[in-house]
Amino acid sequence: MTAEKFWMGWLKITIIIIIIAGILLIILGNTAYAEILNKQINRVFYSGRIPEQSVLLMKGWLLGVSGAVMAGWGSSMLYIVYHPFKKREKWAWRSIFYPLLLWYLLDSIVSLYYGAVFNVTINTILFLQIIAPLLFLRNLFFPKLNPLS
Fold first, then answer.
1. Is residue 144 part of a domain?
2. Is 8 within a domain?
3. Which of 26, 30, 34, 132 could link 67 by a cystine bridge, Cβ 3.0 to 4.6 Å?
4. C-alpha 118, offset from chain centre
């Protein structure tokens, strides 16, 4: 397996996981199936207590909306990776790289502000999962100038 195939596969699998995770947040975000996430949210925002029913409804809605954004964002990235990436179109690489940086910085800053360190950890893992293949594949889109050619 070539390095290019490995990193392209890595990127595709990571993006598919994002899409699936987004759909699962919509369906299961406020249920016992998302217990780890819910415990972290409750610990940070509700001093470990289970919030009242109206707050649980709002939290379910927010998780669902976040899941929809994740699934949509992932679908866009997957389309770009399957089509313009194969043609080595520079804009395709940039259209994943720059929004990824913006998402990571903004989401992590907001999460740190509110004390949701668990989310910064999730963000960092996901960021590294996507940025690594982008950086390894960068030379396919932006080959270095060879002064001898």
1. no
2. yes
3. 26
4. 14
